[in-house]
Amino acid sequence: MKWKWPEAAKKYSYVLLVMAVGAVLLLLPSGGRDSPREGTPAREEGTAFDLEEFERKLERTLSRIEGAGETEVVLTLDGGSRQVLARNQERDGEGGGSNTVVTVGKGSGQQEAVPLQTVAPEFRGALIVCPGGGNAAVRLKIIEAVSALTGLGSDRIAVCAGGT
Fold it and tell me: Most CB atoms closer than 10 Å: which of 11, 31, 56, 58?
């Protein structure tokens, strides 16, 4: 049997088309996924939770509630933020094993642990002082807003009336 190129090309045209498209895709640049593009800021690593900034933002937001007036917010935390590190777990046939933290080389012999995620601290309680804190309707709106933003129950949120 003699191989005829036009017949083979016709018979396997879809296979050849898929292979050609795959080759073209392999030759295209990756689009810069590994490094930040020009003009876009690099993502900060290890950004920690800033309690004071969160309190200021909450104060500005609560002050916009009708009848609340200018608010002051004090939040307390249960512990601080922590990082969950990547771990390599190896088991042997006898039920024992080892558990080591995964590290990467940063050059010049430096090693750094690989974080999987940063867990924000949990709130313990909140105190909100505002001129409208004596009004039951305003107090309810503030408690609902603080509860929604912090995850605290209403029993851990205190709203007090204060002068300006």
Answer: 58
pTM for the predicted model, two decimal places? 0.53
Task: Name the residue ranges covered by the structural domains of the chain.
Answer: 82-119
Rounded distance between C-alpha atoms, residue 23 and residue 152, angstroms: 55
